[in-house]
């Protein structure tokens, strides 16, 4: 039998680090059920409330997670509000009575527990080598020691788009080699070659799904960047070009590109067209270049055009990324 029927953990979890995890795990060990209340007002633009709540829920599916997003009802109190305001908010929105409040010893713990008629349980969150400050200032630093799920959020995926034979693959691979970061190949081209250019429309969703899976795997190997050859926007444009239509699943993948990639580079069609036997036609290159740029503009996705020989392109990208 556990010590408490129910327990509460409150925090911003910005980002969720091993100290926070120790706190939640201590609550789980001691309580039959645990609720985590999470908010920050103002919110963190680079890791908004729903993202932080998603981390907690994914790592602790047995916990009740209550996120309160900035600007959404019920509106959470400002971070600078008096303690009694925060305590009243917790008491009003607590989904069930709790017997214990778990903290790392912060000053708010005792008065909050008293307000809720609960016991204050102090958990030693200190972990040798862990720096909470480092986790906030630079989540990708070794000292942050974030869970791979959390750390992956801060790795920047860099997409290289463009028409056929514009040097996307060569540039992405060159950047990966120069920086020691992972490279994700264009799944669509691989399947296109395997199908000898006769790829059915039904396979376009497979392209997107497998491509995203490779990106997610690469994120776990990355230090700061993942260099990606093409994304679902290109897949969508080719579906429209060859079939006059595009599956809604592919369009959904394309819609997520705005949030998924930190940087988008478009390779200019300023190098000789290389007909290696798998490509369509130079005129298609011109069409796709315009279609991709138009799509990015409509979606409001900022992009940088890179051109010239490979060395110049690498230099342009490195300057833009600051690496």
TrEMBL record:
NadR/Ttd14 AAA domain residues are: 157-313
Pfam families membership: AAA_28
Q: Name one GO molecular function term.
A: catalytic activity
Source domain of life: Bacteria
Question: What's the protein called, per UniProt?
Answer: NadR/Ttd14 AAA domain-containing protein
